[in-house]
Amino acid sequence: MMEIVTANVTHEMITPLMSVGLLAEKLTHEKERNQIDQDAKLISSTTSILLSEVKLLLDKSHLSAGRF
Predict the structure, then answer these.
(1) Which of 32, 47, 49, 58 is the most exposed place for a label (fewest CB within 10 A)?
(2) pLDDT per residue rounded down to tens, the chain (68 residues)
(3) Torsional sign, CA 50, 12, 18, 45
């Protein structure tokens, strides 16, 4: 059971991680201030999604181990 949860959450984490990396790289090349602000907001929201997934994984692992 835990392997399935880990595989699912890991898969869900890959997309936001890749997005954060690509957006951060894009920001290093941006010239337009408005676009930089939009990208920074997108990085922030993507990071929040990723943190939620990590917290979910931790909660599920604690439940599985009977430590919650």
Answers:
(1) 32
(2) 666 666 666 677 778 788 888 888 888 888 888 888 888 888 888 888 888 888 887 787 777 777 65
(3) negative
Q: Which two tokens stand for residue 8?
A: 């699912």
The pTM of this model reads 0.60
Whether 24 and 43 have beta carbons less than 8 Å apart is answered as yes
Residue 17: strand, helix, or coil: helix
Integer Cα distance of 62 and 34 in angstroms: 42
Q: What is the DSSP letter of 32?
A: -
Residues 6+ apart with CB under 8 A from 13: 50, 53, 54
Rounded Cα distance, 42 and 21, in Å: 12
